[in-house]
Design a protein that fits this description.
The chain has 315 residues and is mainly alpha-helical. Helices cover 74% and strands 3% of the residues. Helix 1 runs antiparallel to helix 7 and helix 3 runs parallel beside helix 5. The N and C termini lie close together (11 Å).
């Protein structure tokens, strides 16, 4: 336990001082992208990792948060911090509207329903030009600001992204060690048995789904302010597939796994730039090997190795 605490504080300290030691904007941008992906992976982990539902439309809620922030900031002058909350609330309401009828479905039908929702929403964003500006997207989304200071470079955005990641990780940790989290895991491990012992499986699945969509909406709103732009590309299915990959490679139903998966999936394309024509092939091969030989992900491999040495259980 002591070693784990020391590692946690060392990593936290390194994360806090990183922008002070690194001045290259590209490296800071990559770090911000990693944290955005990590929050997205943690948000999907509530749905995929804890209750075991395969959602294939998660990017839609990321895009809803981004569009909500852009439209409120540009059309109504809502302060940027208010748009982050609004992005989460609106995405959560869409999550409730989508999850209420579809989470009653069993098998692959829920995954198909969420995939269809994402495709429909992307079509709406592409064709409703009077609201969304169509495929050209909405430029000029105002940057974040705090105490009158406008965020004009990557450093302040880095700390906001780090704060969002810390809040998402803390929420995951609290839920995982609560009665609700234990109900989530029971549903994932044996749905019928969970129902037989009195767990309201639908209510808990809906809670996990809405919570995941709220987090996705908040980080989507943040990303719109960070890039000063939002377009239908934010709702594309490849984003969902990337996030699903992060959760699977890192380890479903864990705290550390989605974060590690997000770091790997974000950095790997950068490392593989030298093999530009084969990047997707190499990436797919790594995913295939993970599914076959490490179905519990990186965390599962590390947990097995640690327990062989007599260590305590990893998160």
């Amino acid at each position: 336990m002591r070693a784990a605490n020391l590692s946690f504080f060392a990593i936290s300290a390194a994360a806090l001082v990183l922008p002070l030691a690194v001045t290259n904007p590209y490296y800071l941008h990559t770090a911000i992208a990693m944290m955005v992906n990590a929050v997205l992976a943690l948000s999907l982990n509530f749905i995929l990792g804890y209750v075991g539902e395969k959602s294939l439309g998660h990017a839609a809620f990321f895009g809803i948060g981004g569009y909500t922030a852009a439209l409120l900031a540009l059309n109504l002058g809502v302060p940027a911090w208010g748009t982050l909350l609004a992005g989460g609330v609106v995405s959560g309401l869409f999550g409730l509207a989508v999850g209420f009828p579809t989470l009653r479905l069993r098998g692959p039908y829920f995954a198909i329903a969420t995939l269809g929702f994402g495709a429909i929403l992307q079509l709406i964003a592409t064709n409703w030009t009077s609201l969304t500006k169509g495929p050209m997207g909405i430029p000029g989304v105002p940057p974040l600001a705090f105490a009158g200071l406008i965020f004009r470079n990557e450093r302040p955005y880095y700390y906001v992204a780090l704060l969002l990641l810390a809040l998402a990780a803390y929420l995951t940790w609290r839920l995982a060690h609560s009665r609700i989290g234990r109900a989530f895991v029971a549903i994932r491990q044996n749905f019928d048995l969970a129902e037989s012992v009195g767990i309201d499986t639908f209510r808990f699945k809906l809670a996990a789904f809405v919570l995941g969509t709220v987090l996705a909406g908040v980080v989507g709103a943040f990303y719109a302010h960070y890039t000063n732009f939002i377009s239908p590309k934010a709702l594309e299915s490849y984003i969902t597939l990337n996030v699903v990959t992060m959760v699977i490679i890192g380890g479903e139903g864990t705290l550390i796994g989605p974060i590690l998966g997000a770091i790997l999936v974000t950095l790997l394309p950068e490392v593989l730039r030298v093999a530009e024509n084969f990047r997707l092939v190499i990436f797919g091969f790594i995913l295939l090997l993970t599914i076959i030989y490490a179905p519990s992900g990186i965390v599962g491999l590390a947990r097995a190795a640690w327990q062989k040495r007599g260590g305590e259980r990893l998160a």
